[in-house]
Amino acid sequence: MEPVKVVENVYWVGAVDYGVRDFHGYRTSAGSTYNAYLIMDEKITLIDTVKNEFLPELLSRISKIVDPRRIDQVVAQHVELDHSGALPGLMEAIGREKPVYVSQTGEKAFKAHFPGTELNYRAVASGDSLALGRMSLEFIETKMVHWPASMARFCPQLGILFSQDAFGLHLATNRRFDDEVLRRVWGYEALKYFANILTPYTGPIAAVLKSVVDSGLLAKIKIICPDHGLIWRDNISEIVNCYARWVKQEPTRKAVVVYDTMWKSTEKMAAELADALSVEGVLVRRMSLKSCHRSDVATEIYDAGAVLVGSPTLNNGLYPTIAELLSYMRGLKFKNKIGAAFGSYGWSGEAAKMVQAALGEMKFQMPAPEVRYMWVPTEADLEPVRALARSVAAALPKEQAPPDFGF
Ligand code: FEO
């Protein structure tokens, strides 16, 4: 694939990873990209690199524009290896003495990631500016978006924000720009990315968004070049507004009923809960972990007001897939959720109680105790399940959930 011109003298030279399906526990069903950008100015500057295995692809694209040895400097925005893995190899190719601009926190992190590789790191702080010739790059610290060492860059002459992980999405395609991909595709993938990667950092993201608005920077942005997925040139206000909404984690009248089942008793309860919630006018996503991945569940949870988790009891404990889901949810630190627990059992019946306790520890509001069944529930036995659904529905906001994630 050829490099792609973003604007005159700025090129996308990254890599498309059609095969990746796991990104630290997130199922990247549509693959991903690792975006790197080449700025042709008096000082030829590369912004970010790619996963190490894609170094030849990066060098090949750069070579179609300029001999890589002519690159004068590298700006490394994020030390996570999907963006920095190829850095040592790249520096070997272009000249190790060339400066690599990193954040102050980043310098230590880069050295720790590449021990024994002596690179010419230059630490910069928020507000510092790097002259390229006709253009310049202003550094904006974005700690915890997505790692402590993260930084973004703004080119005031072009109105381009190089946003690093922020505004990214995982989507492998040969189209590079947002207006070349269906809105419902980028809408879903952007939410999935936010839900699975950025949810724990909504506080720092809200602070960065506020400073971008307060400083007047937002009005100057014409293009956003993130490190994953599409370059935003047509839907900048839409994606920024999505982030402004998503950081609030406002509950909607939507419930996710997520469960696994051993001999279909817990599934019977899940089906009854979903039906009873529907009767109450709640938008319901019923998700069996036999067919749904935890990262798809997290995406659905994101704009839901309630999460109802069902687990059979296995060997006095949680069903393994539910234990894994709860661990994943705990890490994501969802806010403003209502929870409920249910599950079937044969003789000891600990699982539903454990789910109830786990959701409580995640600070979910729990409007009713867990509902459990021994063996196989009959139709008459399911009334407490319907009552649980009514308790959850009563605690949800009255207005309907926005369809299609509110787009
Ligand atoms: Fe795309 Fe935080 O790495």
* Poorly predicted segments: none
Q: Please list the strands of the largest sheet in the order they lie side by side.
A: 1-2-7-8-9-10-11
Characterize the main sheet: 7 strands, mixed
Corresponding CATH architecture of the largest domain: 4-Layer Sandwich
Averaged pLDDT, please?
Answer: 95
Count of discrete domains = 2
Q: CATH H level of the largest domain: which superfamily?
A: Ribonuclease Z/Hydroxyacylglutathione hydrolase-like
Distance between the termini: 32 Å
Number of separate strands: 21
Bound small molecules, by name, code or SMILES, are:
MU-OXO-diiron
For this structure, what is the CATH class of the largest domain? Alpha Beta
Share of β-strand residues: 15-25%
DSSP helical segment count: 13
Describe the structure.
The protein has 2 domains: 243 residues, 4-Layer Sandwich (Metallo-beta-lactamase, Chain A); 142 residues, Rossmann fold, CATH 3.40.50. The chain is 33% helix and 22% strand. It is α/β, with parallel strands linked by helices. Helix 5 packs parallel to helix 8, helix 5 packs across helix 10 and helix 6 packs across helix 8. The two termini are 32 Å apart. It is built from 13 helices and 21 strands. Strand 10, helix 4 and strand 11 form a beta-alpha-beta unit. A 7-stranded mixed sheet has the order 1-2-7-8-9-10-11. The chain has a 5-stranded mixed sheet with strand order 12-13-14-15-16, with no helix packed on it. The radius of gyration is 24 Å and the shape is elongated. Bound molecules: MU-OXO-diiron (FEO). MU-OXO-diiron binds next to helix 2.
